[in-house]
Every structure is written in structure tokens, then in C-alpha cells.
Design brief:
The complex is a heterodimer of chains A (258) and B (334). Chain A has 258 residues and is mostly helical. Chain A has one domain (3-253). Chain A contains 11 helices and no strands. The longest helix of chain A is centred in the middle third of the chain and has 28 residues, at 139-166. The two termini of chain A are 33 Å apart. Chain B is α/β, with parallel strands linked by helices and 334 residues long. Chain B has 2 domains: 3-232, Rossmann fold, CATH 3.40.50; 237-302, Alpha-Beta Plaits (2-Layer Sandwich), CATH 3.30.70.100. Chain B contains 12 helices and 16 strands. In chain B, the strands form 4 sheets. Chain B has a 6-stranded mixed beta sheet with strand order 8-9-10-5-11-12, with helices on both faces. In chain B, strands 4-3-6-7 form a 4-stranded antiparallel beta sheet. In chain B, strand 6 (66-71) and strand 7 (74-75) form a beta hairpin. In chain B, helix 3 packs across helix 4 and helix 9 packs across helix 10. Chain B is elongated and about 80 Å long. The chains are: A mainly alpha (258), B alpha/beta (334). At the A-B interface, helix 1 and helix 5 of A face helix 3 and helix 12 of B.
């Protein structure tokens, strides 16, 4: 077998291992699915009435694409916690002592987390439909929107893989993750229109790639004006994947655990 | 050099002047090690002595700062990729996936050694049977006892039948029965031709298993030899006589003095004397003490233990000192 074929085969073995763990470790991803449900309820029923969203019939139509993108970003925590756990328990040492492809542990991990993200999206879509959200675009656009969300989630898994490799403990990875994720997801177009924010925050929100992903998802799900957001979101996601995959694999190759 | 199957063989493990520092902490200050094929080399030392660092370098997990290390004829830096196919590693933290079953763990490791799907499954079944884990094979590893986990960890290290095996404190935290079982398994692997490097802070473990022992402290090999050679360094057998009555100390010393070159020492009613077989044995000592009217509470021959060796060599007992200093230093460096 060629080196590439080994890399693919090794990645599949690691991905399978991580998929087998999902039903056996439900507490981990259930919490990251319940969290966005809380956000949906909080924003629709507590803050929603006070947030003006011109051009949208219902705040739920404005909010749900944002919550879905945020759920993908939070999916990175599943990657970080799983990887930190493997590091702490010595599993990464075992993998690194095996004649397997150097990229397979991280690639298998992040690929398996696409599956957990898909489960989370299904749950959030169902909750969204219950609180009054409606898809108003063609099935092709809806499918493209779901694909975009999963691609974006994959990018965040790599960002969080990188965070986990540089943290000394799962707790450290978790708090560092929150520091990254809160400004990015809240200072964005996800929960309120940026033009309602102070100038500096509005500028940040408009430049924030997370806003690009949210706006693209909104365009694909409820037909909001897209501009270049869809291609922008794809490019941002692919760019983040390339950069953080390279950085993470580089870190993994060198000594990572104590 | 020993030969295997009539062929001259190079050492399975050959380490020259290996050095590694983490920041300001010198973890290894130039150690030399050598192990012929089919033998157990024991690396004995307290926590923080550099044992784990040595194992991590030899298993390609950590690059050395200097020196050379060859395992199974391959350089640990230049030939790292090829070497990984020829070694097995079992660590002190029992690196098995708790959420996979025993079978799934071994199958996964087999596939990552590129055995192929069917052979990996077959090998997993075989190893579960050999390690008495067949009944637990379809249970998640998190339900296993400590001893079962260690056995599964060791089985994972053996999946690819590696010629060289690294065991980093394999019995730390195990109950005595599990410990004995693991020892027997290791001995069986070595009888089948595997070379083992074993780190331990337990002296009896090194004594029981190792063909040769390197005593390591503060990143340096401070003594090397067979267990018997090391014990001889601190002197041979000693006779210990416990007296019933302290006032008879002087009489006892006088009675036994002709039996040894050194004058016997006597403190707190216990007389200690190097035992010289050529000049008489315990029976002779007893006869002399009896003739001198000395009353004996207890009499025994003591062989030096590796504890004595350690104390003599390092000036401190083999207690875990500087708990996890090594680990903290590595974390700081990472």
C-alpha cells in the first residue's frame, strides 16, 4: 500500500473508534446539544421581543441560522475534550508509538466529530421548527446550507484540536475554548443585526467570519440577501481547515504530552 | 556476545551518551545502556530519575538532545518510522480506550500496525485468550479491574509480535496477585526471544525479572550489572545475631572475632558480622557463642537486598522523591 492509502486506512480506523464511542459516552455531546436549545429558548422567548430584525417576519427566522452556526462552533468542544482526554490517558502516546500515519489521529477525530455535529443540527432544526422557524428556500439551497454548516463545524473541530494540543488539561482546553468562542459568536450577526451595535462592535461583527457564515446560512435557509457571503463562508471554512490542520499535525508530530 | 539461532547478533538495545534536558532540568545527562536480544534490562530508579524520559526517547516519542540510541538495529531518530513497526510499548497509565471493548482495542491496534482487517481480528482473539480476557473481551475496558487493564495494555503492546518491548512501570499500583501474573507473562515473552526494557521503582521486581540492571538517579547511570553483581558491591552475606542481654555484647564480639577479618560490630544488642564460608558457618558461630555463655534471642543470615544497594549508591533510599518532577518539567517545556 502507498503512504496515501495507509493514511486513508489509518484515518478510517481512528474515525471508527471515535464513532463507536459516541453512543457509549452520550453525556459529552448531549450537553453540547442541550446548550444550543437553551440559547434558542432564551433568545426567542426572553430577548427576542426586544431585538428589532427588519426584513424578517419572525425573530426565529433571523435567529435559527445563527444558533445553528453557533452549535457548529460549540461542536469543537467535543473535539477538544476527546483529544485532551486521549492525551491525558496516554492513548496519544500509544498512537504515536505505532507505525501509523502521523495525521490519522487528528483527521479521524475531526471526521468523527462531523457526525456528532450532524446529530446536533438535526436536534436544533427540530427545536427551531417547534418555535416557529420555517425554511423558505428550495430543498437544494437547504441541503447546501446544511453542508456549509458541517464544513464550518469541521473547521472549528480543527481549531479546537489545535487548542487541545496546546493545553495542559481538558479543563484548560475548555476555558481557552470559551474565551475564543464567546466574542466570535456573540459579537456577530447571529443574534442581532450589527447595525444596531456601537460603531466599533459593528465593525468587528461585520469583519467577523462567523457573521459571514451566519449570513450565508440565512441566505440559504430563509432567502435573506446573500451578496458574496456563501462563497465567502466556504473560503473562510476551507482556509481555517488548512491552517489549523497544518498547525495541529505539526504539533502532534513533536512531543505533545508529558 | 550471545548468539541467537547460531547467528552473531548485535544488541537489541544500544544507547550511547544519551542526553535530554527540559528547560533547565537535565533529565538525562549522558546515559549508556545495552541489552542483548532475549534478555530483560531493568532500569531502576526513583520517580524523576529519568527512566520515563529514556523510554520515551527509545520509543520515538521524544527526540534526544544528544547521543545515539539504536533499537532492533534501527536508529531512534533517523529510522523512527521503520522502528515503530518493531517495538511495543506498555505504559504506567495503561493506555487503553476505556470506551472500547477489549476486543475492539486490540483490533484497532492491530489495524494501526497494518496487519489487515482479518489478521487483526484473529490476533485480537488470540491475545484475549492468552491473557485470560476472553470472557471480558466484549465488555468496555472501563468496566475492567486495574489488573485486567494492565493485561490488556500489555496485550496491545504485543499485537505485532515486536522483537523489543518497552514496559514503563508495568506493575505500579497492581495488587500482588496481578503483579505476579504480569511477571510470569513477561518472563514467557522473554523465553520466546523478546527483548524487554523494564523500568521500575520496585527493587524486588528488578531482582526477580532483570538479567541486568542499570541503576539510574538524577539522569545518570550510577551502577550497572546483574542483580548479584550489584549486591556484591555492598558486600556479601552477613550474620546477624540478636542478643537476649545487652551486657553480653562484649563477650559475643570476642567469641566471633576469629571468624572474620573485620571485628564484628555490635549495637543495641544486635551483632553484625560479614559471613565467610571458608572459616566456618553459622553452626560454628553458634557453638562459639554457646561456649562463651552468650544467650541468643535470634540468629539469621542476611543477603544484601537491592534496597541496600540503592542506599549505598545514592545515599538515599529508593523512595519516590521529587514526586513527578520529571513530568512537571516536561509539561513546562511543552
Amino acid at each position: 500500500m502507498s503512504a496515501l492509502a495507509y493514511t486513508v486506512a489509518d484515518t478510517a480506523v481512528v474515525a471508527r473508534r471515535n464513532l463507536l464511542r459516541i453512543p457509549r459516552q452520550p453525556d459529552l455531546w448531549v450537553s453540547f446539544t442541550i446548550q444550543p436549545i437553551m440559547f434558542v429558548l432564551l433568545f426567542v422567548y426572553v430577548f427576542g421581543g426586544a431585538i428589532q430584525t427588519p426584513g424578517f417576519d419572525d425573530y426565529a427566522d433571523f435567529l435559527m441560522p445563527g444558533i445553528m452556526a453557533q452549535t457548529m462552533a460549540f461542536g469543537g468542544f467535543v473535539t477538544a475534550i476527546g483529544l485532551s482526554d486521549d492525551l491525558r490517558k496516554g492513548l496519544i502516546d500509544r498512537f504515536r508509538s505505532l507505525p501509523m500515519a502521523r495525521s490519522a489521529v487528528l483527521a479521524g477525530r475531526t471526521l468523527a466529530d462531523v457526525a456528532t455535529n450532524a446529530v446536533s443540527i438535526v436536534v436544533i432544526v427540530v427545536v427551531g421548527l417547534l418555535v416557529g422557524f420555517n425554511f423558505s428556500t428550495s430543498p437544494v439551497e437547504v441541503a447546501a446550507g446544511l453542508g456549509l454548516l458541517l464544513l464550518f463545524g469541521y473547521a472549528f473541530s480543527w481549531i479546537f484540536a489545535f487548542i487541545a494540543l496546546y493545553s495542559s488539561s481538558p479543563e484548560g482546553a475548555q476555558s481557552l475554548g470559551f474565551i475564543v468562542i464567546f466574542p466570535i459568536t456573540f459579537a456577530s450577526s447571529a443574534f442581532a443585526p450589527p447595525d444596531s451595535m456601537p460603531a466599533a462592535v459593528e465593525a468587528f461583527a461585520n469583519a467577523n467570519p462567523f457573521s459571514t457564515v451566519v449570513d450565508a446560512t440565512r441566505a440559504l435557509f430563509v432567502g435573506a440577501p446573500a451578496g458574496n457571503d456563501v462563497w465567502g463562508a466556504v473560503l473562510w471554512s476551507v482556509g481555517l481547515i488548512l491552517v489549523f490542520a497544518a498547525l495541529s499535525v505539526h504539533k502532534y508530530r513533536r512531543a505533545v504530552s508529558s | 556476545m550471545r548468539t541467537l539461532r547460531g547467528m552473531p547478533t548485535e544488541p537489541a538495545i544500544e544507547v550511547r551518551d544519551l542526553r535530554k534536558a527540559f528547560g533547565d532540568v537535565q533529565a538525562l545527562c549522558g546515559i549508556d545502556l545495552s541489552a542483548p536480544p532475549g534478555t530483560i534490562l531493568g532500569l531502576l530508579g526513583p520517580n524523576g530519575a529519568g527512566k520515563t524520559t529514556a523510554v520515551r526517547i527509545l520509543t520515538t516519542l521524544l527526540p534526544p538532545d544528544g547521543g545515539t540510541a539504536r533499537v532492533a538495529g534501527l536508529d531512534v531518530v533517523k529510522d523512527a518510522a521503520a522502528l515503530r513497526a518493531r517495538i511495543g510499548l506498555a505504559g504506567q497509565y495503561a493506555a487503553v480506550d476505556e470506551n472500547l471493548t477489549g476486543f475492539e482495542n486490540l483490533e484497532m491496534v492491530g489495524r494501526l500496525y497494518h496487519l489487515g482487517r482479518a489478521p487483526a481480528r484473529e490476533r485480537a482473539g488470540e491475545l484475549l485468550e492468552r491473557f485470560s480476557l476472553t470472557d471480558a473481551g466484549d465488555r468496555m475496558a472501563k468496566t475492567y479491574s486495574g489488573g485486567m487493564r494492565r493485561r490488556l495494555d500489555l496485550a496491545a503492546a504485543l499485537v505485532a509480535r515486536p522483537p523489543v518491548l518497552f514496559l514503563d512501570e508495568p506493575t505500579t499500583g497492581l495488587d500482588p496477585v496481578s503483579r505476579l501474573q504480569l511477571w510470569e507473562t513477561i518472563e514467557a515473552r522473554v523465553a520466546a526471544g523478546t527483548t524487554v526494557l523494564l523500568t521500575t521503582q520496585y527493587l524486588d521486581e528488578a531482582d526477580r525479572l532483570a538479567d541486568r540492571i542499570a541503576v539510574i538517579d538524577h539522569g545518570q547511570v550510577i551502577a550497572e550489572g546483574t542483580p548479584d553483581e550489584l549486591k556484591t558491591q555492598v558486600g556479601g552475606e552477613r550474620l546477624e545475631v540478636t542478643l537476649e542481654d545487652y551486657s553480653e555484647e562484649r563477650a559475643a564480639v570476642e567469641a566471633l572475632a576469629p571468624l572474620a577479618d573485620e571485628r564484628p560490630k555490635c549495637e543495641h544488642g544486635i551483632l553484625v558480622m560479614p559471613l565467610d564460608q571458608a572459616r566456618g558457618d553459622i553452626a560454628e558461630a553458634v557453638r562459639r557463642l554457646d561456649a562463651a555463655d552468650v544467650h541468643i534471642a535470634d540468629i539469621a543470615v542476611r543477603r544484601p537486598t537491592l534496597d541496600d544497594v540503592f542506599l549505598v549508591l545514592t545515599g538515599h533510599a529508593a523512595e519516590p522523591e521529587e514526586e513527578e518532577a520529571e513530568q512537571r518539567a516536561e509539561e513546562a517545556a511543552a
